[in-house]
Write the structure tokens for this entry.
Amino acid sequence: MRKVIIPCLFCVSLTFGIWATLFSMYMHHNHASDHQNRSQEPISAWSLGQNVQQQIIHDSEQISKPHVKVKHEPEELQPLDFNYSDPEFLGGFLKYGFNTIISRSVGFERAVPDTRHKMCRQKHYSFHLPSASVIICFHNEEFNALLRTLFSVVNLTPDNFLEEIILVDDMSEFDDLKEKLDYHLEIFREKIKLIRNKERKGLIRARLIGASRASGDVLVFLDSHCEVNRGWLEPLLAAIAKDPKMVVCPLIDVIDETTLEYTPSPVVRGAFDWNLQFKWDNVFSYEMDGPDGPTKPIRSPVMAGGIFAIYRHYFNEIGQYDKGMDLWGGENLELSLRIWMCGGQLFIMPCSRVGHISKQNLKYREILKAVQRNYLRLVHVWLDEYKDQFFLRRPSLKFSTYGNISERVELRKRLGCKSFQWYLDTVFPELEVSVDSR
């Protein structure tokens, strides 16, 4: 009898945990909706951080005709009543991390609100900007979300700037990402290169494969569940054209995982704590002073993750990604530190907006080991004596293995990179150092 009771109790507790998570998301969404109805003020950086961490100029008439044109103006997404006990609804969240019922009803194309500041819409950019290779890697992505990412890029990117879209399938297992995807990509034949990995590489190495096949001047990395906004690419290319060692990120708007509502984010910058956990941080008011005001590029200590643009030759010059890292996790912090400490700059461009689905990652434990290993490689190569700050908080990892880092240490020497102390003093003085009280 005891052998039967214990598994039953486990199943009950697991079911309760899933229901509690979904109910919490539902209540959070209702609360956010009520708040927006009561106030027209922008959401705060803190509320954005909460939402994203739960996982994140041409007007339309001036944009060159895209390779694929929207045949009609998609209808604005209407709110739907959900049956939260629907197995399809629960199954979609467990499988993909967001509401697949709405994703399917939205389809491949839709209009999203232009969330740029009005000053951004008045900006004009040179017709002679660098060309871009947009790299999108995916593994078992929800079909409609992936196609919306592609359609938004093609429809809202001037054709003269878009060299190609490189789509890297990191050995997806789902049937709709095979022949069905090939069929739908026929419409993009002239613009898309589809690469299918024969074994799982992980996001980091998949991006390196995509970058190795790129021919554009600038590499633009996107996640596979994004929707770019109007005029998204030109601010990124214009900044890199002025300074090839400037790495730039769009401001990331939030696409709600339950309703797929597209919500504008405030102007924020990327930051992290001594656990190496990424977080959004407020931007000081003086950083938006001057004639450029809210359109001014914002210095960011780190990038959020996989949505950024970098000059292709500079990406190769500073060592691409750390090939010793597994799957994903921590690579955004490592690259950010390397950019700043080795002579580059990292900025967020408020006039570039990209929406991103804030997925509920219910399978995080599957990659926890890889994330810890990646953190350790970062710590031992880049933090110098400040690695003790990390181990004060993660003592269990102090003697864990992290592979051979000699190539990355040599890269740091060859590039003549500055110390982490310089980074703290110059780029991120807000990261306070704690004293070991033991």
